[in-house]
Amino acid sequence: MTHYLKEPLLLEKRGVTISNRIMKSAMSEGMASRDHAPTDELIRLYERWSEGGAGLIVTGNVMVTKDALGEPGNVVLEDARHLDQFRRWASAGKRCGNEFWMQINHPGKQVVRGLVKEGHAPSAIPFPPKFQRFFAPSRALTTAGIHDLIHRFKMTASLAKEAGFTGVQLHAAHGYLISQFLSPRHNRRTDEWGGSIENRSRFLKEICRAVRAEVGESFPIGVKINSADFMKAGFTEEESKYVIKSLEELGVDHVEISGGTYEKAVMTGKKGPASEREAYFLEYAEGLKKRTTIPIAVTGGFRTSEGMREALASGATDMIGLARPLAVDPYIPHKLLEGELKDITTRSVRTGIPAVDKGGMMEIMWYSQQLDRLGRGKQTKPRFSPKLSLLLSLWKQGMGVFQKRRV
Questions:
Q1: How buried is 190 (Cβ within 10 angstroms: 0-12 exposed, 13-18 middle, 19+ buried)?
Q2: pLDDT (tens digit, 9 = 90+) per residue, 175-225?
Q3: Please, what is the end-to-end C-alpha distance for the chain in angstroms?
Q4: Does pLDDT of 235 surpass 80?
Q5: pLDDT at 362 over 90
Q6: CA–CA gap between residue 294 and residue 208 (Å, rounded)
Q7: Domain-by-domain residue ranges, the chain?
Q8: I need a surface site. Which of 104, 152, 396, 399 has the fewest CB within 10 A?
Q9: What is the pLDDT of residues 247-283, one digit of tens each?
Q10: 3-state helix/strand/coil string of the chain
């Protein structure tokens, strides 16, 4: 029943073996210090996830510059000032022999108002009015600015390797900067960085080339990318498949499939196209596997060991990505691998107050509090009242708790 989950996965080009088919996908922890370094609580959290048994663990957002923060509490790695703390984080996150990759990112125009003054984007296209209160205004990047950010991604990847992380994942999904370049909805440029999908994917491809040149041939590079944005005039499934095929040709080692953006939050549990199968993006992944041999992970929606086994056995995906369930029980991977767990039940987190529950913000607060408990060495509270969770958040953070974040 569980042998598919236990099979190792070889990343052939790097000679790296992931010990099993379970991947802890990225969640935004919001647990950095005031100067954006990993805290003791963040380090302890990842030590527990390493003990939990996933073959591959991916960090939450690590930003390439402190001038662009996507959420409160983002970690930033732009120079060697806090490298000892990053070394401690890397050591904790891989202590049980798993792969531990740093997700590196730039939010583009998804920068929280009040944290930064101005965002940078492919084009100066504002968000719809209902989102503008969350995000700072943005301006279009110059060509020099684009090349500077490619350099920043390269340097963050190099520092991650120096700190002891075993790989990196480039975040090209969920409406962050790379995703913005890919989408014709956000990228209206008329130079070599815009227009056709070949040009819109140039930014991601140049980052991949720069990172590979910097980290060498033995260090894995993964990419998290949308199957689609699920928005009118957005990034499409056909474009996504084209980009992933290009990434394979560039020697990218692993692709994680997700979907949606803050404007269309498919990645938080709202499905795109209707499906009778557990995982949100499995049909897309199945079609993708006919075009590419690159190892694929699908994250979102898996809730039974049978559904995971079937997805792996069918060849639709090579890895099972899990996120929010591991915020409540970090040992779920071990339990799945040993056949001790058949179903992963996650509760609906609702206060009954429409203005609070709308858009999934209440769930984000609730799961963030579970991560905080794990980081402080405590047990999670799976039955913690959403209303008490809201009161606790307001007491600690005031109305700032409603700033846009994701888990």
A1: exposed
A2: 999 999 999 999 999 999 999 999 999 999 999 999 999 999 999 999 999
A3: 30
A4: yes
A5: no
A6: 15
A7: 3-346, 350-407
A8: 399
A9: 999 999 999 998 766 555 544 444 444 445 577 889 9
A10: CCHHHHCCEEECCCCEEECCCEEECCCCCCCECCCCCECHHHHHHHHHHHHHCCCEEECCCEECCCCCCCCCCCEECCCCCCHHHHHHHHHHHCCCCCEEEEEEECCCCCCEECCECCEEECCCCCCCHHHHCCECCEEECCHHHHHHHHHHHHHHHHHHHHHCCCEEEEEECCCCHHHHHHCCCCCCCCCCCCCCHHHHCHHHHHHHHHHHHHHCCCCCEEEEEECCCCCCCCCCHHHHHHHHHHHHHCCCCEEEEECCCCCCCHHHCCCCCCCCCCCCCHHHHHHHCCCCCCCEEEECCCCEHHHHHHHHHCCCCCEEEECHHHHHCCCHHHHHHCCCCCECCCCCCCCCCHHHHHHHHHHHHHHHHHHHHHHCCCCCCCCCCHHHHHHHHHHHHHHHHHCCCCC
Report the chain's mean pLDDT, rounded to a whole number. Answer: 90
Q: 11-25, 194-208, 340-354 — which is least confidently predicted?
A: 340-354
Phi, psi of 35, rounded to the nearest 5 degrees: -100, 25
Rounded distance, CA 240 to CA 350, Å?
A: 34
pLDDT at 263: 55
Task: Please state the pTM of the whole predicted model.
Answer: 0.92
- The pair of three-digit structure tokens given for residue 137, joined into one six-digit string: 């205004």
**Selection from 46, 190, 25 nearest residue 123 by Cα:** 190
Spell out the residues 6+ positions from residue 223 whose beta carbon is closer than 8 angstroms to its own. 169, 170, 172, 204, 208, 244, 247, 252, 254, 255, 256
Instruction: Please give the pLDDT value at position 271.
Output: 44
CA distance linking residue 56 with residue 351, whole number of Å = 34
Q: In the predicted model, is pLDDT for residue 403 greater than 60?
A: no
173, two tokens: 């999904």
User: Could you give the maximum distance between any two Cα atoms of the chain, in Å?
Assistant: 55
Task: Write down the pLDDT at residue 360.
Answer: 65
- The residues with which 100 forms a beta bridge, in sequence order, are 57
